[in-house]
Amino acid sequence: MPESAPHKDMPSSKGPQHGPLAEARQEAGAQGAGRQPASTKDQPGQEKHAPSSSGTTADQVASLKAQLAEPRSIAIVTHARPDGDAIGSSVGLMLALRQMGHEARVVVPNAYADFLAWLPGLEGVLDHQTQTEQAAQIMAEAELVFCLDFNTPARLESLAQRLLKSDATRVMIDHHRDPEGFTRFRWHDTGASSTAELVYGWLEDMGELHRINRDVATCLYIGMLTDTGSFRYSNTGPRTLRVAAALLEHGVDVEGCYARIYHTFSEDRMRFFGHCLANNMRIFPEYRTGLIHVSRAELECFRVRTGDTEGLVNYPLSIQGIVFSAFIVDRTNLVKLSLRSKGDLNVDAIAREHFSGGGHRNASGGISNTDLDSTVQRFIDLLPTVPGLTA
Ligand SMILES: [Mn+2]
């Protein structure tokens, strides 16, 4: 994903994890999950001393330590269409668990993006969609299942049933709001930048920080880098940078990591962005709004591939004074909208009310059943009605 990727600019929220809402949520990720105290409800012994920022109790730490005192078969699962944090935290944990003497594999519901394909340890990842039998076997044999970067089994899609069927001990490590109670153990902190940051905390709690080597550090660093938009979103806290610093002590190649994640445009994609910005962007200063529209013919002309439009919606927000941005694209059978805002402007409400969608306050998505031109016009017509837009 590009540097400008919208992914993580918003708080996460609960609700059904499918349809346009889920898509917007997926786009929005977990950034800004809010620096709130970790939820400790449903946790055994929550009144006891909490040794870590995740609200995990000393009892929980001791109990899990005891379970890991002998070699175990461990599966690590993470959410569908896994992003940098999902893969980085999962593979980083897998490599650390292996060094602790366990047999560990990562099972993903479906494919991760190409820009992650260089990470160390990926040979330990099974794709439940394409390697179903092997993945099923790992899930069936696992004594423990670590659930990383998601808080409801629904985010596992087709893999969810395998998780719920297994009688393995489940451990959640996550930073999304309102976790469901489907795990025995929980390392959960909405104030953490990323699940990768929490995996570091987990290793700390377990007394296993010495397992971190350059590969583990690189995986965890990628999780932190991508979930914080390169350490620039509001979820970047003092601890985030302290943990990142500790990872750098292990020799993470900062420049190389950045380039492998963000300097990944094809020439087609770069020219497509240029075309959109030069020819398809409309700015409405009186409404502090920018809009980019793309037709199906243009998608074909620039050989735009899945994921190539990602991040484009953020560009108008870089114009001084613009607080509201829309990307409207004519996909096969459907016109789709991505909405972004800065500050208090609630694009979740706009998407819900006008475009059968939703998401977060500053990042949402929706759909339109009319054609591209009339959708664009409808969007422009609603600007005067949006509270707080006129300066
Ligand atoms: Mn995350």
Q: What key attributes describe this structure?
A:
six-stranded parallel sheet; alpha/beta; Diaminopimelate Epimerase, Chain A, domain 1; inorganic pyrophosphatase (n-terminal core); 2 domains; disordered N terminus
Task: Please give a quick description of this structure.
The protein has 391 residues and is an alpha/beta fold.
Provide a descriptive summary of the structure in words.
The N terminus is likely disordered. The chain starts with 18 loop residues before the first helix and ends in a 9-residue tail after the last helix. It has 391 residues and is α/β, with parallel strands linked by helices. Helix content is 35%, strand content 16%. It has 2 domains: 232 residues, inorganic pyrophosphatase (n-terminal core), CATH 3.90.1640.10; 119 residues, Diaminopimelate Epimerase, Chain A, domain 1, CATH 3.10.310.30. It is elongated. Helix 11 links the parallel strand 8 and strand 9. The longest helix has 16 residues. Helix 6 crosses helix 7. The strands form 2 sheets. It has a 6-stranded parallel β-sheet, sandwiched between helices. A 6-stranded mixed β-sheet has the order 7-8-9-10-12-11.
